[in-house]
Amino acid sequence: MLTNKQMQKNLKYYKNYYTGEIDGIVGTLTKTAVKKFQKEYGLVQDGIYGTKTDGKLVSVVKQCQKAAGATADGIIGPDTISAVKRFQKKNGLTADGIIGTQTLRKMNLSTAPQADAEVNWSEVKYFEKAEFQCDCNGKYCDGYPAEIDVDLVELLEKARTHYGKAMQITSGLRCKKRNAELAGSSPVSKHLEGKAADVWIVGTAANNAALVKWFQAQPEVNYSYTGFGAVHVDVK
Q1: CATH no., domain 129-235
Q2: pTM over 0.70, yes/no
Q3: Are 63 and 113 in contact (CB under 8 A)?
Q4: Which of 27, 101, 142, 196 is deepest in the core (most CB within 10 A)?
């Protein structure tokens, strides 16, 4: 989850929803900005910045960052603002760093980029969709209780290229019932959202600390750990 200050900053520089001070205080202006964002993306308009709203905001900001040539981490800071200004200047727009309607159009994202882009599996080199299928084997779901996150697949492709060895997905998507069966699994696991995978690089140690360290150095990664016979990674 973004901090209150970072949430305000994202909502300020994404379509200028938030117009107040970046102070971390969730007052009327902040709640109004959140409601406007929620309305645009079909979320419950309660003004509460919860996990679903956070996921949408981080996702749309990542798309804008990619289009501007900035690091796609979903966090708007000085580097993103500078990249947006350069993009705006290059495209004959007012270089104010605000990702508004005209900037979005130049980014080919229209006025409301899709937050949940689907993976184009024909362009994925090393993995197949079936490798991420929930392993309840049809007992509780059809294997795909959620969309597999684009950033997760791109991250694993990058890791596969970096290490030059086959990578096995030991756990990808999980439905709620299957997740509940697994000892130690969190009820809010990123596996439920298609944002996490447990992996093993074939021919290496199952508890690969070096892979954890590599994952942790990637800007799109939220968390990575090992110690259970594979390496877990999830994205923001």
Answers
A1: 3.30.1380.10
A2: no
A3: yes
A4: 196
Q: What is the pLDDT of residues 139-173, one digit of tens each?
A: 999 999 998 998 899 999 999 999 999 999 999 99
If 0-12 CB within 10 Å is exposed, 13-18 middle and 19+ buried, where does residue 95 land? middle
Write the DSSP string, 59-93. Answer: HHHHHHHHHHTS--SS---HHHHHHHHHHHHHTTS
- Residue 196 sits at φ, ψ, to 5 deg, of -140, 155
- Spatial distance between the Cα atoms of 102 and 110, rounded to a whole number of angstroms: 8
**Domain locations in the chain?**
4-107, 129-235
Task: Report the Cα 92 to chain-centroid distance in Å.
Answer: 30
Three-state DSSP class for 112?
coil
Q: DSSP readout, 36-55?
A: HHHHHTT---S----HHHHH
Nearest to 184 by CA among 198, 194, 195: 198
The C-alpha atoms of residue 217 and residue 214 are separated, in whole angstroms, by: 5
- Tell whether domain 4-107 is in CATH 1.25.10: no
- How confident is the model over 216-227, as pLDDT tens digits? 999 889 999 999
